[in-house]
Specification:
It is a multi-pass membrane protein. This is ABC transmembrane type-1 domain-containing protein. Keywords: Cell inner membrane, Cell membrane, Membrane, Transmembrane, Transmembrane helix, Transport. This protein has 265 residues and is mainly alpha-helical. It has one domain: MetI-like (MetI-like fold, Orthogonal Bundle), CATH 1.10.3720. The chain contains 11 helices and no strands. The two termini are 33 Å apart.
């Protein structure tokens, strides 16, 4: 190996390690702060205490906001799957005119900041006398999260052999039976991944939720947004640590159930 190749390899390793540190470091700091025994945020923590995790589960308002977020996220996940899977099929298997325009339309929300979608939803709702509510939040988050489902399912569909569907049809199976018994099992890893990413994104989203959620039933990200303005205790770090743990558990379940390496096949 030439000296320049060795230098390039070590530079690449150093840049990769630094990038990973930037990604993981803040989360590790938040987790460490959540065990701070004192009533204010400090790093490094002066000791070890689980009092703030106990405070989270003793706070009824936070528990209610968690339930709201779970309910909203499940609804968003269901809507995105019902719309995203047929849309991905149309984009990959369709032969109609305007398919490129359809792809651009479906994926365009991913190019927009969440705040833009939230404000646009709020203004449009005001124009048609549709106030901020759980329904507006679900619809707005569905628009924001739909590209995740479409892109993941499209990537998986692009790798599937359409001859399998033709073989199923030649054996007498209808389109619905072919989809249920041939296509759907092959899409399972992509559907699991799309469901997980959509749920996590809807659960953690604050930019859209801030403008479209019901003030009487605020989801967890909005509740945290208001809490951080008036509370400097590590309870915020404890809630954030629980969300980090939730994301990790969801991805671990997917990795064990279907294997993350299969998503790109």
């Amino acid at each position: 190996m030439l000296p320049i190749d060795r230098i390039a390899r070590w530079v690449l390793i150093a840049v990769t390690a630094f990038s990973i540190l930037l990604l993981i470091g803040p989360s590790l700091i938040v987790i460490a702060i959540s065990f701070e025994p004192r009533a204010y945020i400090a790093f490094p923590p002066s000791g070890f205490s689980t009092r703030w995790y106990q405070a989270v589960f003793a706070n009824q308002q936070l528990l209610d906001s968690i339930l709201v977020s779970v309910r909203i996220s499940l609804a968003v996940m269901a809507i995105c799957l019902m719309i995203g899977v047929p849309a991905a099929f149309a984009s990959i298997r369709g032969t109609f005119r305007g398919r490129a325009a359809l792809n651009a339309f479906l994926l365009s929300p991913q190019m927009m900041p969440g705040m833009v979608i939230g404000i646009a939803s709020l203004f449009f709702g005001a124009y048609i006398a549709f106030r901020a509510s759980d329904l507006m939040l679900i619809l707005s988050l569905s628009v924001f999260c739909l590209p995740f489902v479409v892109r993941i399912v499209m990537a998986r569909l692009a790798d599937l052999d359409p001859l399998l569907d033709e073989a199923s049809a030649n054996l007498g199976a209808g389109k619905l039976e072919t989809f249920a018994r041939v296509t759907l099992p092959q899409l399972a890893p992509a559907l699991c991944a799309a469901s997980a990413f959509t749920f996590i994104e809807a659960f953690d989203n604050v930019t859209v939720s801030l403008f479209t959620s019901d003030v009487r039933a605020r989801p967890l990200p909005v509740e945290l947004y208001y809490l951080v303005q008036f509370d400097s205790s590590p309870i915020i770090a404890a809630i954030s640590s629980l969300e980090i743990g939730l994301s990790f558990v969801v991805m671990l379940i997917i990795a064990k159930a279907v294997g993350l390496e299969r998503l790109g096949r």
